[in-house]
Amino acid sequence: MRTVVLLLLGVHLANAVSHSMKYILTGVSEVDSFPEYTAVGMVDDIPFVYFDSNIKRMIPKTEWIKENEGADYWNRESQRESAYIPAFKNNIQIAMQRFNQSAGVHTLQLMYGCKLDDQTGAKDALVQFGYDGEDLISLDFKEMRYITPVQQGIPSVQKWNNDKGRMENDKHYFSSECIDWLKKYLDYGKSSLKKTVSPQVSLLQKYPSSPVLCHATGFYPSGVTITWMKNGREHHEDVDLGELLPNEDGTFQKTSSLRVTPDEWKKNQFSCVVEHQGKTKTEDEIRTIGGDSVPIGIIVGALAAVVLLILIGAAGYAVYKKKQGFKPVSGSDDGSNSSAQAVPQA
Fold first, then answer.
1. 3-state SS string over 190-226?
2. pTM above the 0.85 mark?
3. Residue 101: which region, alpha, beta or left (left: phi > 0; alpha: psi -120 to 50)?
4. What are the residue ranges spanned by the domains of the chain?
5. Taking burial as the number of CB atoms within 10 A of a residue's CB, which of 57, 125, 211, 248 is the most buried?
6. How far apart are CA 46 and CA 59, in angstroms?
């Protein structure tokens, strides 16, 4: 009979409280059944607004944004996003030319936003561009310069870094304006966004020869670190870290797997260490569960969630702009009216 071994080990939980706001914009080509443009706004990795080119309206995804913003906000957000539909369509064609492509399904995405550490006050910008799921351009916020790992990104990087006005605008937005909106949204949703829920942590193994899976679930906020220990020291070999995934109740789950032989497991002391929000929890009970319906079902559900996130444009990053380089512009004429900022314009 197949069994799944569930091992609950000592778990240390500790981390600083960090919050983030980001927008993920996605354009796709030649996919009839999917919107050619989508935009998802997220606070602490929870979607709070959504727009696509089919509905052509920015809509609320949480009660706290719905209750705190009125018609002017939604009209303004909808008009801005609608204006970017032709820009993304044009940019996909330009990107295809840059990458010597004449047809096929292609994806342009942009992720941008900011992070704030509640305890230290440290700020950081989140800006990543890419094409067809590959990294293209990112912002080094400490050095305040754009960088690229590929030749196709060089013209854009050179153009942006040499545009002093643009760089000052970006610096102001990510260090001030974006942070102000993040704080505002955190205040809107403080009853849910500032709650803290510790994770439940377990080790799962389908067969003695299978990888051991460290599964942390039910935690909030999303910031969590999972590491492996071998005989009291950090262990990084044969380790695969999974994606952060949402649960239906608004909490999160994450996994890390360790490939290890049964003999090595017996001869050494392995443990999984999860860090989250300054709390400590210790479990040392070992149980054997017959069958694989419950734990494996969790894993299968997690994989399905990954596919869903990709489809709504909430995973992966990319955008390619203009032959001379993309030009992110302010989300509105008056930046104080909108939390959006770095959007593409051909």
1. HHHHCCCECCEEEEEECCCCCCEEEEEEEEECCCCEE
2. no
3. beta
4. 3-15+197-309, 18-192+312-330
5. 125
6. 14
**Torsion sign across C-alpha atoms 179, 183, 189, 192:** positive
Whole-number Cα distances in Å, 105 to 36, 51, 108, 218: 11, 21, 10, 36
> 10 Å Cβ neighbour count for 127?
22
Sign of CA dihedral 47, 20, 300, 217: negative
Distant-in-sequence contacts of 262-271, Cβ < 8 A, 24+ apart = 262/208, 262/209, 265/212, 268/230, 268/231, 269/229, 269/230, 269/231, 269/232, 270/212, 270/228, 270/229, 270/230, 270/235, 271/9, 271/10, 271/228, 271/229
Superfamily of domain 18-192+312-330: MHC class I-like antigen recognition-like (3.30.500.10)
Query: Contact 121/336 with Cβ under 8 angstroms?
Result: no
Question: What architecture does CATH give domain 3-15+197-309?
Answer: Sandwich (2.60)
Distance of alpha carbon 10 from alpha carbon 7, whole angstroms: 10
Token pair belonging to 317: 């990053």
pLDDT tens series, the chain, 346 aa: 333 333 333 333 334 468 899 999 999 988 877 899 999 999 988 899 999 999 999 999 999 999 999 999 999 999 999 988 988 888 788 788 888 888 888 988 989 999 999 888 999 999 998 888 899 889 999 999 999 999 888 888 898 899 999 999 999 999 999 999 999 999 999 888 777 888 998 888 877 788 888 889 998 888 888 999 899 899 999 999 998 888 877 788 999 999 988 888 888 888 889 998 766 444 333 333 344 333 333 333 333 333 233 333 333 333 333 333 333 333 333 445 677 664 433 2
